[in-house]
Write a structure and sequence with these properties.
The complex is a heterodimer of chains A (258) and B (256). By secondary structure, chain A is mostly helical. Chain A is built from 11 helices and no strands. Chain A is globular and about 55 Å long. Helices cover 32% and strands 28% of the residues of chain B. The chains are: A mainly alpha (258), B alpha/beta (256).
Chain lengths: 258, 256
């Protein structure tokens, strides 16, 4: 399959799915931003109103982390189940299996564009003005996307081989939700060594922190760290693409037979 | 042999396919679907494959289309030739409209987007779906899905057409139209492998027939001959007692 045709297919599949998805619900496209907002609302009620988070800027702080996290978790979750979900098509046509997770991830990107736009509006309303350091958002978002691609490909393969991984991935997302500094501040842990450890061990915590540093404090993230995360995710994604090309027919058999 | 002058389009050499599947608890069943099958498909011929449900006919087509790789043996296709599988229904995405499904199917078979878009008008007309073409496929009846599936595959052009039971669904009027369109393709230089359990259709369309039972080739040859033998076997009359191929696939190493 020609590379341009391959990317056109990914985009076409993503757009079709978006259109179908919006026609399924009464509120249609509004759900793109309503769903993440409701998540934020739930966390806000629990941590600010009930538990009293004692942060003036808690809403903005929460949105910066939570909205980027939902992008990651939803895309990876759906991407992981995408090959198995498309087994009807896979049994009919020999196509690159990477198409299915990548189309799902691409669909998530379209939705996330609307979500980020909303985030910028909220930031503006709360008095956070854009600055030159906001230019860092582009590489951070690009690395975030690469991270989603790599994880979705790994997840899609694993679920194809053993369905049980679908459960493990959902549980893993819950674990990341609590350990990535979404409703708590990695930089306010008290022990600087612990902050360092969390940021180094969990790339997602680093990414969420980078969004906050840029949007709320006009501070550039650690460029080298970002580059390392990008390299790691890039290599992983390339390996997965190569592996899934080689094992395309094996994946088809697993998707259809187990 | 009458085919000696023709080029081989596709060849299966000692092909076996075995897979493990999950059963209840921690048990796994091993299914041997095909067992050392060898056959050739020649350019321009229409090869029929017959056999009871579940003997591996569809799997054989999936191997020919490159969807699965054989566990043992080889599938060789003439370089530069494309093979495409025409089956019913399940390949559709229910939430997408008939139009989107047709477009996606054509693009996945390798058509460019502009080519695929140009097929849509023809597909809509031939399938007689009318306004339903814009509705989600999940609202379609089985017959409507069959019409969409058949038409989409018919319009996309491939070197080897692999047809799986596709002419056996839909109402009588559409079936006649589909058969006529199919015959037109067959009369041309289209190479076709045709799976069906409808003997009349096979006799009508195929030059040569292969009978599959229990994952192996039971008989191979001229359509009338093989069909006669098949009928004597399944028809009951003079079949040997107990010699039935009704067991879908042989299950190996399975715990009782």
């Amino acid at each position: 399959m020609h590379i341009a045709h391959y990317f056109l297919l990914i985009d076409t599949m993503a757009r079709m799915s978006l259109r179908a998805d919006s026609s399924k619900y009464f509120l249609g496209y509004i759900w793109w931003i309503l769903e993440p907002l409701l998540y934020v609302a739930v966390f806000y009620v629990v941590f600010s109103v009930i538990l009293d988070a004692r942060r003036e800027d808690f809403l903005v702080f929460l949105m910066c982390g939570k909205l980027a996290f939902i992008w990651f978790s939803k895309s990876v979750n759906q991407g992981a189940n995408s090959i198995v979900a498309s087994r009807g098509l896979i049994g009919k046509i020999n196509v690159p299996k990477t198409l299915f997770p990548l189309a799902v991830v691409h669909e998530g990107l379209y939705k996330q564009a609307a979500v980020f736009l909303l985030l910028f509006i909220v930031l503006y309303v709360y008095g956070y003005q854009p600055s030159a350091s906001w230019a860092w958002l582009l590489p951070v978002m690009a690395v975030n996307y690469l991270m989603i691609v790599a994880c979705a490909l790994v997840g899609a393969c694993m679920v194809c081989l053993v369905r049980d991984f679908s459960m493990v991935i959902s549980l893993g997302m819950m674990f990341l939700l609590f350990t990535s500094g979404i409703f708590w501040d990695v930089r306010a842990l008290g022990d600087p060594a612990m902050t360092e450890l969390v940021l180094n061990v969990n790339p997602l915590a680093f990414m969420l922190d980078a969004y906050r540093q840029i949007l709320m404090y006009h501070t550039a993230p650690d460029g080298l760290h970002l580059l390392l995360v990008a390299l790691g995710c890039g290599v992983l994604a390339l390996c997965m693409v190569a592996l899934m090309r080689r094992g395309s027919q094996f994946l088809a058999l697993r998707a259809l037979s187990s | 042999m009458s085919h000696s002058g023709r080029q081989v389009m596709l060849e299966l050499q000692e092909v076996s396919l075995v897979y493990r599947s999950k059963r209840s608890g921690f048990e796994h069943g091993q299914h041997k679907v095909l067992d050392a099958v060898s056959l050739r498909v020649y350019e321009g011929e229409t090869l029929g494959i017959i056999g009871r449900n579940g003997v591996g006919k569809t799997t054989m087509l999936q191997l020919m289309a490159g969807i699965f790789a054989p566990t043992r043996g080889r599938v060789r296709q003439r370089p530069g030739k494309s093979a495409s599988l025409l089956t019913l229904g399940l390949g559709f995405r229910g939430e997408l409209s008939g139009r989107d499904n047709a477009l996606l199917a054509a693009m996945l078979q390798g058509s460019s987007k502009s080519q695929a878009l140009s097929y849509l008008f023809e597909i809509k007309n031939f399938s007689e779906l009318g306004d339903s073409f814009e509705e989600p496929v999940k609202t379609y009846s089985a017959g409507m899905r069959a019409r969409l599936g058949f038409t989409t595959a018919l319009m996309t052009h491939v070197d080897i057409l692999l047809i799986d039971e596709v002419l056996s669904v839909g109402d009588a009027q559409f079936r006649a139209k589909a058969e006529a369109a199919m015959k037109e393709r067959i009369r041309g230089e289209q190479t076709v492998v045709f799976v069906s359990h409808m003997a009349a259709q096979v006799r009508d369309l195929c030059d040569r027939v292969i009978w599959i039972a229990d994952g192996r080739i039971r008989a191979e040859g001229e359509a009338g001959e093989v069909l006669g033998e098949y009928h004597r076997f399944v028809g009951g009359g003079d079949a040997k007692p107990g010699a039935t191929d009704a067991i879908p696939t042989r299950r190996l190493g399975q715990k009782q």
